[in-house]
UniProtKB/TrEMBL annotation:
The active site is at residue 267. This is O-methyltransferase domain-containing protein. Residues 138-342 form the O-methyltransferase C-terminal domain. One of its GO terms (biological process) is methylation. It comes from Marchantia polymorpha.
Amino acid sequence: MELDSMTKGKLSNKEMPDIRTIYKAFDFATSFALKSTMTMGIPDILARSKEPMTADNIVEKLPCKNPAAAAGYLDRIMDILIVPGFYSKTPVSNADGKSHKAAYGLTPVSRMLVKDDVQFTLLPIALLHVHRVFTDSFQHLHKSVLEDRAPMEVALGKPFYEYLAENQDVRSTFQEALSCHSNYWIKIIAQEYDGLEHTKTLVDVGGCEGESLKELVAVHPHIHGINFDMPVVIQNAPQIPGVDHVGGDYFASVPAGDTIFLKMVLHNNGDEECLKILKNCYQALPERGGKVIIVESVYDHDSKEDEAQFVKYLDVMMLSVFLNGRERSFDAYKALLTSCGFGDCKLIKLSGGVTLIEAYKY
Ligand SMILES: C[S@@+](CC[C@H](N)C(=O)[O-])C[C@H]1O[C@@H](n2cnc3c(N)ncnc32)[C@H](O)[C@@H]1O
């Protein structure tokens, strides 16, 4: 087939696309500049200061081998993080009263990266996204298409969970990151979601060690929680008032309850596996009025472009790790739910980009 005129090089210089536009797709310098500030604990250093800090002030708090040069390097790293909104920058006068230096402060985004902020820190999940295991896996993304293999498995030489089982440090990093993400979501759900008022027995399918139920039962003490996960996970689960732990396999069956909670479980699975899990959930609900609540990152026709783009970003992460695991649109979840017999599917959007789907058994 003929190349188009642009590809054949028949455009004038003025008609040529700006070379800088392609660099936007490869902006890993911003990701790693942010990573380097997280690694040096700069969000915590800024959080402890009453005033914005110059690079010289920050460097005084760091074990730099060459402090004289370090502030200059740090200014350059901080500078590309200003426009995307990770840090603020204000001018402060030098001793001569004529020239200025930059002083840096936290923004609402970097405030979430303060390690010591126990309620809101998202530092572990932010560090996970730039962890070597993930960045190495992305070098093989094309092999999903060409070789039908999970890029992560190509990079590690084995499936991700097998690798985690053998590597305690990466496993802890991964678990800490997932639980900080999960805590953030569940706190918002516990405070804002009003669909649990009539629930008597809430079954958390794939509930890990019961962290979600702990939070939900504390806010809704009338609920009896059943935390369901693989026996190997359940055997380490701590006792939680109002919650019973049950071990099993969600592909075989799930415990009975009038409400079933599925948080960040379906996105690890392909459509066929999701159908098996959802059919078992359907079976476990009472004949009338039972409902399933799916908590995942979801977009629909009303979502803004950047909200849908965020879900697509997560989807490529899932592709790189699990190949068949995927993020889905509301329409895709609705199709899975209705083919298992569920009806009246509703997408609920809460603060902080938290989304959940309710669907009923009639
Ligand atoms: C991504 S984690 C989600 C954990 C939790 N729901 C949350 O939001 O943090 C998926 C969970 O599913 C559990 N799981 C995986 N396969 C399972 C199976 N066949 N039966 C029961 N649980 C399973 C895992 O042990 C893990 O706890």
